[in-house]
């Protein structure tokens, strides 16, 4: 199993990194970088890439080293995956050497045993890396190998430069990789690297779309403590956040922006949910608000340019709305680029590393009293029942007269509904399934109605401001605002009905 934290560094900062005090204390550091030439192999149909694997042969002096890496998890730049490495005779892979370590029933196991695949293997790209290695032994006894890489990945279609810092855990706890990275971040501006060298090589061969990733169900055990539940829920939220970063960074995928934003909302809701027993560290909420706002600016204009104007176009002259849609799409595109820059920033890198370290080390325990630590061991199911009851009561209170209250109060009720929904989904596995489904079903319908109403309020403000910078949109913006106002007015009876249905329910327990 390989556990490796990957970070990008500017080429001009590599020399600074080579001379940081942390590396100067390293025993046996490479005096000069050595050249590593690795040739990656695949079939003409890229069968290894299709099953989430990469296969290479690396020249090590006069010897050759064959490595197969399987697809694993990537969170906050930490790659956690299976790696199979062995000497090989010659410059081409020998798939028979992989028969024993890889189960025959797996997709990759079948592939390495396929004689036709072995016969079709060919070089697809090459990496040439000058690597300086610094072995570190931390005071905790953990051992980390630090590699500073500078070079290129080359294919027939072109090449890409590489300048990277890799921290590979040799012995100890993976969270210490985050600690070392944060120490180095105080010296040079590092950024999370979400792409392995194999990923970069395949990107030169094929254009792949990063699919948006929705939240996965949280699975808690009946025996889980409050602290166990907190860790599971926060990791689940972070998995959604990190899984959508690639799509956001690409700058062209509004769905990834939306799903990363949802992941951040779920994360902030989870932190708020447990705040009385596990307080977040200072500054965390401020940083989460910052990155969420960077994503939100893109999302609001995407919604307006998409579903909102599409509905308006069915009720009037679509030609009048074309300038509005064009202007909104232009702003949305610019804001997507801004969101991509935020996720690629040093500020976001620091946030991701600090949060990962805090969660891994259970950093909240340090300043707690014995009584507070004891509270963490309470059964999660009791905590969940109390939280769901309180959140439900708060929503009932804020939603009183829901169809007739003003936009500000309805917005507060919508936020309360969202928090109830997230809390119920977080703790769903601790409650009877049918009860949860019935409750969440009614809540989801209510939330959807409140959601599009909120989109209408946001859209009205955006449409009001649009003609100031794009005068040609004035007529279309006025029509769209009128359409939205009439749609909201027509929804009065529906919202009243949905609220009446929900308020009869009791929270799951």
TrEMBL record:
<dbReference type="GO" id="GO:0046872">
    <property type="term" value="F:metal ion binding"/>
</dbReference>
<dbReference type="InterPro" id="IPR023577">
    <property type="entry name" value="CYTH_domain"/>
</dbReference>
<dbReference type="InterPro" id="IPR038186">
    <property type="entry name" value="CHAD_dom_sf"/>
</dbReference>
<dbReference type="Pfam" id="PF01928">
    <property type="entry name" value="CYTH"/>
</dbReference>
<dbReference type="InterPro" id="IPR007899">
    <property type="entry name" value="CHAD_dom"/>
</dbReference>
<dbReference type="Pfam" id="PF05235">
    <property type="entry name" value="CHAD"/>
</dbReference>
<dbReference type="InterPro" id="IPR039013">
    <property type="entry name" value="YgiF"/>
</dbReference>
<feature type="domain" description="CHAD">
    <location>
        <begin position="223"/>
        <end position="504"/>
    </location>
</feature>
<protein>
    <submittedName>
        <fullName>Inorganic triphosphatase YgiF, contains CYTH and CHAD domains</fullName>
    </submittedName>
</protein>
<feature type="domain" description="CYTH">
    <location>
        <begin position="1"/>
        <end position="208"/>
    </location>
</feature>
<dbReference type="GO" id="GO:0050355">
    <property type="term" value="F:inorganic triphosphate phosphatase activity"/>
</dbReference>
<dbReference type="InterPro" id="IPR033469">
    <property type="entry name" value="CYTH-like_dom_sf"/>
</dbReference>
